């Protein structure tokens, strides 16, 4: 009997019913504008500020260091473009890595058109940057470094504290995209020397269309949006109160027990997948997100695997969902030097705390059958 199995939680997650329940009063009871001075507005402001406190506590930030946004892409752009423009008087050199999310890479490309000069750091075969290369890349005119905490395709977790320490010593702003790592990897913005960090709700079983940006007190950024001075004059526009409340509730519900469950299921699936002929796990096995599996199969197309799995009721991705319709080889897999005969045959499997062992077994069983079928059909197999 066919099952329906969702294993694309790196792209988006099912909203937790408890997060949805927390949002509901914001549509019919707490519906005032948070900027209004009457009681209806005050109730909405209280809901927003309570939510802000929840996010701040999760990362050991002060409440006034969190601004709410529409999601990870807006947070990345606000942090990178805003910090670069605000600190341009100190220099025009910026640094990132070759494996960032497109929201970061395209923000850097935008800045390059405005005259900024970029250094793109290499990564090793696991997707980790070399801290010595980072040190050497920083020059007198360097004003910003952006390194994602955990990669969205291969799940590799960077040494963000080591990176942060270097940046703080060199008096350079550090931004990190924590969209995939938030609630799955401990984040302490003070101990990790982080200046700017991006977050997204829909990756952690919260609603879509809402995220957050941590801006360390004293760090200068120029806002992208101009209007009524919302979010400490850094992000104009009436706050999405239901989304913000749902985001905070989702963050509250994430815990180490859920992470341990995902890790055990991830490792269980990896061991089974490794037994499939010509399978290659991409990224680090040790420094890896608890829910991420990225695997390549020799001589076959990831797109074909995805399609046939979908017909069997199993949802996975061929990389980042934000550009999965682009059939070009993954820039991440190219950067970690994945062999040519494997690079097109990659899929990303991402579990959640709601994924069951029965679902995992069903997915792997079908993956094994599909890979065998495609390998037999392939002239490269």
Give the helices and strands, then pairings:
Blueprint: E1 5-6, H1 17-23, H2 25-28, H3 39-58, E2 66-69, H4 72-86, E3 93-97, H5 102-113, E4 117-121, H6 131-137, E5 142-146, H7 160-169, E6 173-177, E7 196-200, E8 211-215, H8 230-233, H9 241-253, H10 256-273, E9 279-281, E10 292-297, H11 302-311, E11 314-315, H12 331-335, H13 340-343, E12 346-350, H14 357-377
Parallel strand pairs: 1-11, 3-4, 3-5, 5-6, 6-7
Antiparallel strand pairs: 2-8, 7-8, 9-10, 10-12
Helix pairs in contact: 1-9, 3-9, 4-5, 10-14, 11-14
Describe it.
This protein folds into 2 domains: 5-14 and 255-377, Aspartate Aminotransferase, domain 1 (Alpha-Beta Complex), CATH 3.90.1150.10; 17-253, 3-Layer(aba) Sandwich (Aspartate Aminotransferase, domain 2). Helix content is 39%, strand content 14%. The protein contains 14 helices and 12 strands. It has helices spanning 17-23, 25-28, 39-58, 72-86, 102-113, 131-137, 160-169, 230-233, 241-253, 256-273, 302-311, 331-335, 340-343, 357-377, and strands spanning 5-6, 66-69, 93-97, 117-121, 142-146, 173-177, 196-200, 211-215, 279-281, 292-297, 314-315, 346-350. It has a 7-stranded mixed β-sheet, with helices on both faces. Helix 5 (102-113) links the parallel strand 3 and strand 4. Mean pLDDT is 95; it is low at 320-324.
């Amino acid at each position: 009997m066919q099952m329906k199995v969702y294993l694309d939680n790196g792209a988006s997650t099912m909203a937790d019913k408890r997060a949805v329940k927390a949002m509901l009063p914001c549509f019919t009871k707490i519906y005032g504008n948070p900027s209004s001075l009457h009681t209806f507005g005050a109730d909405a402001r209280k809901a927003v500020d309570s939510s802000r406190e929840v996010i701040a506590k999760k990362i050991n930030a002060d409440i006034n260091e969190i601004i709410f946004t529409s999601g990870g892409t807006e947070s990345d752009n606000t942090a990178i473009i805003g910090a670069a423009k605000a600190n341009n008087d100190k220099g025009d050199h910026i640094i990132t890595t070759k494996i960032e999310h497109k929201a970061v890479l395209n923000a850097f490309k935008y800045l390059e058109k405005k005259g900024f000069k970029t250094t793109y750091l290499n990564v090793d075969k696991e997707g980790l940057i070399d801290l010595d290369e980072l040190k050497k890349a920083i020059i007198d005119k360097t004003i910003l470094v952006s390194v994602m905490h955990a990669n969205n395709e291969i799940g590799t977790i960077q040494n963000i504290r080591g990176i942060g320490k270097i940046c703080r010593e060199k008096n350079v702003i550090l931004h990190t995209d924590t969209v995939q790592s938030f609630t799955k990897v401990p984040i302490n913005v003070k101990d990790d020397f982080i200046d700017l960090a991006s977050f997204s709700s829909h990756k952690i079983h919260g609603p879509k269309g809402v995220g957050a940006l941590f801006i360390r007190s004293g760090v200068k950024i120029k806002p992208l949006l101009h209007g009524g001075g919302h979010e400490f004059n850094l992000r104009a526009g009436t706050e999405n109160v239901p989304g913000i409340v749902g985001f905070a509730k989702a963050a509250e519900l994430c815990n180490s027990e859920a992470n341990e469950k995902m890790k055990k299921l991830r490792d269980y699936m990896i061991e089974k997948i490794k037994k499939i002929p010509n399978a290659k796990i991409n990224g680090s096995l040790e420094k890896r997100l608890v829910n991420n599996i990225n695997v390549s199969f020799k001589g076959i197309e990831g797109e074909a695997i995805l399609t046939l799995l979908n017909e069997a009721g199993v949802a996975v991705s061929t990389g980042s969902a934000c550009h999965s319709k682009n059939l070009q080889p993954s820039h991440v897999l190219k950067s970690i030097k994945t062999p040519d005969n494997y690079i097109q045959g990659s899929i990303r499997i991402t579990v959640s705390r709601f994924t069951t062992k029965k679902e995992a077994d069903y997915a792997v069983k079908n993956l094994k059958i599909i890979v065998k079928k495609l390998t037999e059909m392939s002239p490269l197999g």
